[in-house]
Amino acid sequence: MNQNSPKYVALTFDDGPSAYTVAILKILKILKRYNVRATFFVVGAEAEKFPRLIRRIHREKHVIGNHTWSHPDITTLSKRELWKEITSTNAQIEKIIGCSPKLFRPPYSSINDTALADIKELGMTSVLWNVDSQDWREEDPLAICKHTIKNLQEKNLIVMHDGDRYGSGARDQIVTSLPKLIKYLINNDYQFVTVPEFHRVAFKIEGWS
Is the pTM of this model over 0.85? Predict the structure, then answer.
């Protein structure tokens, strides 16, 4: 890693908002405490249940992206089915906050060339990552921190989870690990950016090569 180059990190959260509101509210509180803006990829069906959380995420200047309506493996869907998952979620989010997402993240990181082309045809940008926090399987907050820090690069797009469905379970471990991770990043001169900002200063990760 070139120590003279700017170091960037975009924190992203998937699968929310959730019934586990303590977690997401704590996550939002932590981000506010450290003046960090993040990107939340939300599930349409969950946004419909928790519009107040969507409004709060938006009000606190975080970016909201699309994570489908029902969290399917999009590589198993027809073009029509995929478009319905995306457009239904976009419509729901626009109904709540008055604007529609331009970013899309495929559930389970499952994407192929056909799905990517269908996503682009809708005018959406697919967003993957280059650092997986492993918070979806790690129960130890320290292990999440260590794994994330070990895999840091100069320009980092980190995936985490604020939703409690779709296999993630309760979010206590990410709530506990997040302040430690943010403090490490601050102390090591990383600049926090949202995904749109990351795309401007770094690069896009739209598919797996």
Answer: yes
